[in-house]
Design goal:
Layout (H helix, E strand, L loop, with lengths): L7 H12 L11 H7 L4 H15 L6 H11 L9 H26 L6 H14 L1
Helix pairs in contact: 2-3, 5-6
Subcellular location: Nucleus
Protein name: Centromere protein X
Main location: nucleus
């Protein structure tokens, strides 16, 4: 008879290691594993993570709005734009708007931004981009 390739103790340790990501020691533990380790703070941790994810999601100009704005300035009614081109313009506009806000905020340094603050940085921003 052929010898067995592994004992039951080896198989048990291997299978228990595969189910727990913490045994490997790489990266942050998953939210479920953190919740198991501290059940009283599990809900709080998940809530904080959800809030961080919402903050990290960047707002962008809706594709339909951008398409509508572009079509308003096309000379010919028959001019079309592909989805890829629309995506490229959307990325450019996103960068443009974020840079304008960042420059205006740096100029202002305190308080709320006004339209005039954005108008001050617009000429140089247009030349830069």
């Amino acid at each position: 008879m052929a010898p067995k390739q592994g004992t039951s103790a080896q198989r048990t340790s291997t299978s228990s290691r595969g189910s727990s990501g913490a045994a490997r020691g790489r990266g942050r533990p998953r939210a479920a594993e953190r919740a198991e380790s501290s059940p009283s703070h599990g809900a709080e941790v998940e809530q904080v993570e959800d809030e961080r994810e919402e903050e990290n999601q960047q707002k962008t100009i809706p594709a339909e709005l951008l398409t509508r704005l572009l079509h308003e300035f096309f000379e010919s009614e028959s001019t079309r734009i592909t989805k890829d081109a629309n995506g490229a313009v959307a990325k450019y506009m996103d960068i443009f708007v974020r840079e304008a806000i960042a420059r205006a905020a740096a100029e202002r340094e305190a308080g709320f931004l006004e339209v005039e603050d954005l108008e001050k940085v617009a000429p140089q921003l247009l030349l830069d981009l």
